[in-house]
Structure formats: structure tokens, C-alpha cells
Amino acid sequence: MRQRTRDPDLERAVSWLVSRQRTDGGWTYYAGEMAFVEPTAAGLLALLASGVDDQQTAEAVRRAAGFLCATQRPDGAWGAFAGDPDASWASAWAAWGLALAAESHPDFGVASAVTRALDWLLAPLHNEYSQEEIESTKRRLRLDANLVGWPWLEGDAQWVFPTSISIIASAAGGRREEQRVRQGVRFLADRVCKDGGWNFGNPFMIDKYLHSDPIETAAALLALVAAGEELAAIRRERRDAVSVLISSGKEPSPITAAWVGMATRVLDLPNDEQREVLLSTQEADGSWQSSPYVTALAILGLSMRSDLLGA
Amino acid sequence: MGTIPRRRMLRYLLLGGVGLGLVPICARRDQLRLLSGLARAEWRKLTEPPARVVITRCAEYSQAVEGMREVWDQLGQPSVAGRRVVVKPNMVHYLPGYPAITSPALVGALIGFLREAGAAEVVVADGGSFTRDSYRLVTASGLGKTLDRHGVRFVDLNYDDLEEVPLAGNYGSRLSSLWLPRTIMEADFLISMPKLKTHHWEGVSLSLKNLFGVVPGSKYGWPKNTLHVNGIPQSILALYETLRPDLAIVDGVVGMEGDGPVYGSAVNTGVIIAGCDCVAVDATAARVMGVDPASVGHLKSAGALGLGFIEEERIRVVGTPVREVARTFARPPAVQDGT
């Protein structure tokens, strides 16, 4: 999995990210003090993807994996942060990060944590809606409420982003053929916006078609790759979604450029504009917006590969 | 305080009697809260003067500073000296051509007055409901440039540090607490600064509904579905009673009618509406839109529970009378099944 790099921009970014790791191995989102699961897993993935392979980085990878193992709940899930009593969508991020860590660092001994995480993530789920609710959802939102994706929080409705990350985590853990993953792919197909991309999960509301968003579009396309769809087929059959990505190329925001960068790299699409946005918004200290989270995503936007998706 | 009319006295006695009688069977805390809210409403009506709501004309955003100066003066120049002020605009989603968010010009004008008044720190904070990238929202909307000019930072509440906060008002909802952003909980003075607009589920989206933006996506996701599952009016009331903003300033220079809160159409209403009783501000803003506040579920409940006044006779409008600026905003598209 590891590809050594001598990219000085990436090396500066990785060095900054490592310097901002908390002593417990976690990372904050921005300038706060609380470690959250999502930025920690994204940081772990970024370090693994970057190809930077010095001793400090290797130690940071070990500590990040340690944070995730220490905060995993007995049922295999994670909260959004250490001490969160609720099982969270961030479990998918943690499972993805640990699955790749288990593969590249068998000595970490995290394989059982990955198994428990994926067992929790892939446990059967049935939407218990009445026929009336299903029909009402069809009428107002033009959604098939029978389809099963993943929610942000247990018990809530299901949405595009947590579904996408959960599919990727499952594939990265070698379990892309499971029924929940197939259901998730069907869920994503049902949530496509009229312009071909994805938004948070409502392509239509009451009497209007809603716009897609490049972040969810990128995440959903990465999920389809992870689920095993052929790259050429995605480029051909999801042409409109690809257009959503390409047309967002000049967005001057690092988070958006990072997600679009991840998808365009994996789909082998032109991504000079995202790279340009990312490099032009990198701070002198190597970070993006002095944020561990944005920096981790930006590193992934500059170094994502399909093998990191389990594809 | 004045004398109590006989009919009202009978109402209090009846309420008190019913309340005392219900206490043994109201084992559930939310029922007791409901009862105490109803009693509080009557008590406030009896003892408190009318709420003061300022309506100021401001024909366009180029006059934001003048408009805000008039609002600030009419409000009696709220005491913010030495305090950490958090301004919470409505940044729900930015789409060019759709006036869904609070104008950066108005936010900038307010920052100027807060600074002049000696605020120790001013922070602008929100957590968009539909996109994970608030930076894009802040940049594209022009708010970023305004904040840079004033040297004020934007805190994305979706990614802030959190603390668990018991919900003060929890009327029949399944939530007893929420994890809320530290920036909001540590504010000395919280200003809810919504847009004047309609809302397809709630009828209107004003300073109370604006509080949905403080609920963090990192924990509850986008578009904050937990609040919908919990019941939108219940969640609005719980957030309002818990956070109790010190001031509401409604951007009605350009409002939104029809399919709010995002896809509606612009209405040049040319007003700023403000006051310290957020419920009274929202009720007045609703009247400016041609909406009876008693027809808006969460406003009717807020009034009934004593969280603020919604009755016209209990609100003293200062500045421009409602009738001079009231319009009839197009209603949101009908929700066929009544949900």
C-alpha cells in the first residue's frame, strides 16, 4: 500500500499534522481542544496515503490507531468523540482508517477491532416505516423509504455522506460483497439529484429539485468505486456526476477541493484545478486553515488512490 | 401591577386548582414543565410590561450602517461592554439568487456598533445545515470579506468543541440534552440574527428557528435530522428555552417568501426588526410577513408557555408601525399530508 514520496508540499503538510497530534493520539477538527473520531481517522488515513515514511510519521500512525482502539465501544462502534455515549456515523471513518492500518501494520494488532467495527457497521437494518409513511415520502421527497443506507445517528433517517463512508470502510475491510453494501449502493442510486450529482440526501423536496453538492458527489463516486463498479463504467454512466465534480474545479475552498481531488484522482479525471486550489491555499507552515481536519483531507486530496478504498 | 380583573382572577384560581390537582398524576417531568410554563405565561402577563420591539426602515443594504444605528439607539444601546458577544446569523445554505442568509452588510454594521459599545470580543458563528463546507458558504456569500475587514473570526459550529447541555424546555420530546458548541455556551451575550423568511415546514423561520444552526453536524449530521425526528417545534422551543438569546435582530431588508428557507423568492421589505424578547420579535416579524403568529406552531406554544409575548396588545412597537411595512408574503408550497 505504501508509496514513498519526496513531494515537499506533502511532507510539510504531514509534518504539521504530526506536530498537532494530541498526546492521546487524536486530532481536533480546528483550533479546539477536543479530539474527534472523524479528524483522527482522516489524519490516520492521510498519513498512510501520503507516502511519507519517516520515524515520526510512523509513530503518529501508531498513536492514531491507538486512539481509535481506545475509544471503540464494546459493541464495535464509536461515538463522534471520546466520551460520546451515542454510536455515531464516525464509526465508518474509524473502521476505514483502522482497516488500512491493519493491512499496512499487522504488528499493531488492530485486526480484531476492525472485525468488530465492520460487524457493527454491516449488521442488518430494516426501516420500519408504515405504508402511509412510505407513500408520503414518495410523494413529498420522491424517495424510496424502503431502501437502506446509513444514518448519522442510530435511529435517524439515512443520508448520502454516512452511507458513502460506510461503503468505503466496508470495502477497505474486505467486505464489499455484504448485503448492506449492496443495499447502500441501491440507496445512493435512489438519491441522485436531477443534475446527476448528490447532495445531503434529498434530491427533491415538496415541489422542487434540489442542487447537488460537490462534496457528497465526490464521496458517493468514491463509494461506487469502493463497491466495485468499473472506473470506465462510472465515467461513462455517471457522466453528469463527473460534470458536477469538474465544474466545481475553481471552488477556492480547501475542503471542497480536497474531496473533489480525491474523486478525480481515483477516477483518473483531470484534476489540475483541484491541485492548484489546494497548493495555493496551503499555509506557510504546511497546514490548511491551521486545521488538522482540513489538512488531513487536503493530504488525501493530493494522494488518494483506489487501493485505499479497497478497490 | 394594577388590579386583576375578576374573570382573570377566576382563570388563575382555576389554573392553580387544576395544577395542584394534576401534580400527583403528572409524574412525568415534561408534563410538570408544561404546567409550570402555562402558569408562567399567566404570571408574566400579569406582572410584566409589554415587550418592546423596534421596527426600522432600511430600504437597501447600502444603508445598513444607518439602519443598524437607528436599531441600536432604539434598543437603548444594549450593554455589551467587556462582554464576549456571539452573533449567530442565518447561514443555512448559500445559493446565488436565493436570499436565504442574513446579509453580510448587516452583520458588518452590527459588528461596528458592538465594537463601539466596548464588547470585549465579537465572534460570528453558525453551522450550515446542508453543506459540510462552511468556508465555501462564508466565502461565496461575501461574509468572509466582511469579517476580514472587521478582524472578526467565524466559528463553524458544526466542528466546534462540545459540551452536553440539559435541555431547559423539553415539552414532549425524546431528547433530554444536546451536545452544543462551546462557543455558544460560553457567550456572555448571544444575538440571534435571522433572515425574514417563510419556511416550508414551520411557516416562518426567524430568530427562534435560527437556533437550529447551533446544533453541531459533527455529532448530529447534516441536515441535523435529529431535530426533525424529535419534532421541529419541540426542538425549536427546547433550544430557545435553553439558550435564551439576549437579542434578536431580523434582516428584513430583503426577505424571502414562498418556498423558504432556501428556495423562496426575494421580497424587498426594507425593514430591520429587533428586540430582547425574541418571541415578540418573531411574532412581530410574522405580522410583517402577513402571517398570524398564532398560526405558527412554535410561536403559539412559546406564547402559551410564557417564553415571550405574541399578542399584539402585549408588544409595544417602537419606530415604524407594523401596518406601514406589512406585506402578504406568498406562503410556502402546501405540504399535502399535513406533516
Query: What is the N-to-C order of secondary-structure elements of chain B (H for helix, E for strand)?
Result: HHEHEHEHHEEEHEEEHHHEEEHHEH
Binned strand content of chain B: 15-25%
Shape of chain B: globular
> How many H/I helical runs of chain B?
13
Largest interface (C-beta under 8 Å): A-B, 46 and 33 residues
| Gap from first CA to last CA of chain B | 42 Å
> Radius of gyration of chain B over alpha carbons?
20 Å
Q: What string gives the helices and strands of chain A in order?
A: HHHHHHEEHHEEHHHHHH
* Secondary-structure class of chain B: alpha/beta
What's the helical proportion of residues of chain B? Answer: 25-40%
Helix percentage range of chain A: 40-55%
- Tally of individual helices of chain A: 14
Number of strands of chain B: 13
Briefly characterize the structure:
The complex is a heterodimer of chains A (311) and B (339). With 311 residues, chain A is mainly α.
Secondary structure layout plus pairing:
The complex is a heterodimer of chains A (311) and B (339).
Chain A: H1 8-19, H2 37-50, H3 55-71, H4 90-104, H5 111-121, H6 131-141, E1 150-151, E2 158-159, H7 160-172, H8 179-190, E3 204-205, E4 208-209, H9 214-226, H10 231-237, H11 239-247, H12 254-266, H13 272-281, H14 292-303
Antiparallel strand pairs in A: 1-2, 3-4
Helix pairs in contact in A: 1-2, 1-14, 2-3, 2-4, 2-14, 3-4, 4-5, 4-7, 7-8, 7-9, 9-11, 9-12, 12-13, 12-14
Chain B: H1 6-22, H2 29-47, E1 51-57, H3 64-74, E2 84-89, H4 104-116, E3 121-126, H5 134-141, H6 143-150, E4 153-156, E5 162-166, E6 177-181, H7 182-185, E7 189-193, E8 195-199, E9 203-205, H8 217-220, H9 225-229, H10 232-243, E10 247-257, E11 265-267, E12 271-275, H11 278-288, H12 297-304, E13 315-319, H13 322-325
Parallel strand pairs in B: 1-13, 2-3, 2-7, 3-4, 7-10, 8-10
Antiparallel strand pairs in B: 1-12, 5-6, 8-9, 10-11, 10-12
Helix pairs in contact in B: 1-2, 3-4, 4-6, 10-12
What does this structure look like?
The complex is a heterodimer of chains A (311) and B (339). Chain A is an all-alpha fold and 311 residues long. Chain A is 54% helix and 3% strand. In chain A, strands 1-2 form a two-stranded antiparallel sheet. Chain A has a two-stranded antiparallel sheet with strand order 3-4. In chain A, a hairpin with a 2-residue loop joins strand 3 (204-205) and strand 4 (208-209). In chain A, helix 1 (8-19) packs antiparallel against helix 14 (292-303) and helix 12 packs parallel to helix 14 (292-303). Chain A is globular. The mean pLDDT of chain A is 95. Chain B is built from 13 helices and 13 strands. In chain B, the strands form 2 sheets. In chain B, strands 1, 2, 3, 4, 7, 8, 9, 10, 11, 12 and 13 form an 11-stranded mixed sheet that branches. Chain B has a two-stranded antiparallel sheet with strand order 5-6. In chain B, strand 2 (84-89), helix 4 and strand 3 (121-126) form a beta-alpha-beta unit. In chain B, helix 1 (6-22) packs antiparallel against helix 2 and helix 4 (104-116) packs parallel to helix 6. The A-B interface holds A 28-30, 32-34, 36, 38, 80-81, 84, 86, 88-90, 136, 139-140, 151-153, 155-157, 159, 161-162, 199-200, 202, 205-208, 210-211, 213, 215, 251-256, 289, 293 and B 95, 130-133, 135-136, 139, 156, 159-162, 179, 182, 200, 218-223, 225-226, 229, 259, 263, 332-333, 335-337, 339.
